[in-house]
Write a structure and sequence with these properties.
Blueprint (H helix, E strand, L loop, with lengths): L4 H21 L8 E10 L4 E8 L6 E6 L4 E2 L4 E2 L8 E8 L12 E9 L3 H5 L3 E2 L12 H6 L7 E2 L10 E4 L5 E4 L3 E4 L5 E5 L4 E5 L2 E6 L2 E7 L91 H7 L21 E3 L2 E3 L2 E3 L5 E2 L1 E2 L9 E8 L41 E8 L9 H5 L5 E6 L4 E7 L11 E7 L10 E6 L4 E4 L75 E3 L5 E3 L131 E6 L2 E6 L3 E5 L64 H4 L11
Antiparallel strand pairs: 1-2, 1-6, 2-3, 4-5, 6-7, 8-9, 10-11, 11-12, 12-13, 13-14, 15-16, 16-22, 17-18, 19-21, 22-23, 23-26, 24-25, 26-27, 27-28, 29-30, 31-32, 32-33
Length: 826
Amino acid sequence: MPINKGELEAQLQQTIGAQERAKRSNPDLNPWSMGICRVVHVNYEEMLITLRTTTGTSDEFTRVPVPLTMPGMGSRHFLGAMPEVGDLCVCGWMSQATMTNSDRPPARIPVIVNWLSRGPWLGHDWMVEQPFEADETDFGSSRKRLLLEGVFQRTRHKRKHLQPGNILASSSQGSDLMLDESVTLANRRGNEIRLRDQDQALVTRSLQQFHAMAGARIYAGMVQRDATLLARTMVSDGLLWDGATQLDDDGKPFFGARLGTVADNPLYNSGLPEDTDFPNNYLTPARILSRRRPSDQDNEQQPPIFQLDARLDPYVFLNNGLFIDQNGFITASTGVPFDGGTTYGGKRMFRTALLSNNYPNLRDATTSRAPTFTEYRIEVAHTSDGLLPVTEQTDGFDADRLPEQFPKAGTDQSTTNVSPNSPYITFALGTVVGNDPYTPDGLKVYGVPLTPSMGTPSRPTPAMVSALNPPVAIGEQAATLFRLSPIGPNAGPDTFWSVKKNGQLRANIGGPAVGNSIDFATTGSVVGKVGGDLSLLVSKAINLEASGGDPASNAALNLNFPTGTVSIYAGGSATGAAASVNDSVDLQGGSADLATMKLGGKNVEMAGDSIARVQGGDLAAINSGGAVTVFGSQSVSIVAGQKLSQAAETHEISVNGKMTVTMAGPANLLPTSGPVRETVIQAATGGTVDKYSIPVTGDRVESINIGNHTTEIVVGNMTYQTATGSFTAKAGGNQLSLNSASGLASTITTGFINLQAKVDSAIVQAQTTILLLSNAGSVVLWGNNVLLTATGGKTGGIVSGEDIEPITGLPFAVLGCGSPTQRLSA
């Protein structure tokens, strides 16, 4: 049949229209179509991602690489977020060429237009999304999760609630920045900074706070000491990890870690060869800074690849900081615990914790459940170089306080080889832990609890020392510390004071070598209450001066000890202008010794409620320009171990009661030592030099048990005189009595009476009668001539019986002449 041209054209137009409509509806052919893609891989270093289309194309396909687009980005600025595997984005399709001679559409590349969010309720409820049931596959192993990444994704959603007008920045790892009426910046562990609108407060909450400023630092929270923790990758383990051999005979990779031996560690595998260029414990910084070293440690280091300034050469500045020795090795001799602590998220840390409730221990709290010490510490340097501080907490390494040279032996580490950024003022609260890792003395106690030590009373050596060596009880640890390291040409030792955890205060005031260490003034009084002892150890002098006294008593110095004793001792002697004649005492040897203690005043009184004693080792002297009075309301005792001497122009003793003098001797119990008592009166003139009187009424009794009583007068008289009474001398039963009324009477009961005048005459004269009477014997008068004279009597010789009668020539006895009872005898 004939062809209808009109119908043919209509059919053709209809076909073309259908094709155009199909072309416009086909996302593969429509240049203006958009689709939704899923992220299956992220190249975060080059900011490229791999996408898999889910809608907007006729089929799913994977496209790589796709450049990341951000809300704002340029050569030097950036605003955006790095996506994760599984995120959804909206992509448009951009032609690679604007013109083509082919009927096929030009190739197109996806361009990320924006990002899509899943249902908000998934994030609000922390729901888990996965494209299959939980029992269909196992996500328990990291290997399975890595193999299925980008294909089958399991995601737990996270989303904060937002209200109109809120701004939120939230990371997948858990940190958030929330802008509502307040500002909240928080990490995934709940540490946060808030600018709170309600009370217009700045609120911070964290476990740790490290604030590094120009010349000042603040450490707060748990005690964390990371300055000595070098990165593990900086130290060789002695194995060649990048060598040609990486697999063992079974095709398994070598572990190679030096964690022990095969017997005690299943991970030990020595299959990796030894690294001959970098032995075990040898410093291995970046290759451009590294120095090769043969395994023989006696050989010298190889020179660096490039000549570096010393402050940039890690083998120099780490040696100055005592991290490595001069051969480049980290050894036990340096004392740096480079391999201690723990690592989390690339951050190395060490926290000082408590091993038990009694004794501390350097136990890392990050790897144990031991309670961690806390602190609030402020350190201030004297000056600042104006450079941004680089510390172990800001950059992982404390470059600010590195010394400029290696510490020299025998030098004072407090004044030499110390960085100008080192603190000269330290204030710490909580538990005081060493924080100086760069001096030999400081390194010994870095990260170690400290305790204040004053040394011994005889040799004070005040310092903050380790509380671990030797270990002390927890109460002996320092709870507070203020320390100032003096600066200047005459700088002395450190000034510090510290309170222990048991409440004890320890303090040392340094100050210059010459001058006052403490000089203070108050407008009022100073009162102190001491529950125990008060001890002052003073190297020089104690000077107390008061310009006035107590208003009530005018006392300028009051020392009152109601229940205690007072002991004051001085062992030196006054010298120079302080010494005077009055300060000296004359010993028995004749030498003048300066007094070691002097008490002076207008009127000085020493009183004891029960006993007051003055005692001297060689001599106790009381000197007075006037009188000296020793008064005891009950008794006064003067005791000398060897000799008691008294010297005065006039010596008066007045006793109202009884006086007793007791002497024992002789000296050393030797008879040759002389008399027990000897009285010598040196009188220049005559007269009475010794007078004894009992002026009222009383008797005097002398008693000698065994011995003699001798009185000897060379020239002079001896008189015993009794005005009324008698004088009696007795020897056994014999008695001689001279009585003022009855005269002289002598009674001899034993022995005889013998009166002799060997040179001159003996005269017995009586006013009335002289009676010579012998009751049983004879009365004999004997001499060359015996003359009997009587007043008014006869004179002549006495006729004896032996005389011859002149007439008869016979003796008168024959004639019977003479008195028969009175006889003369030759």
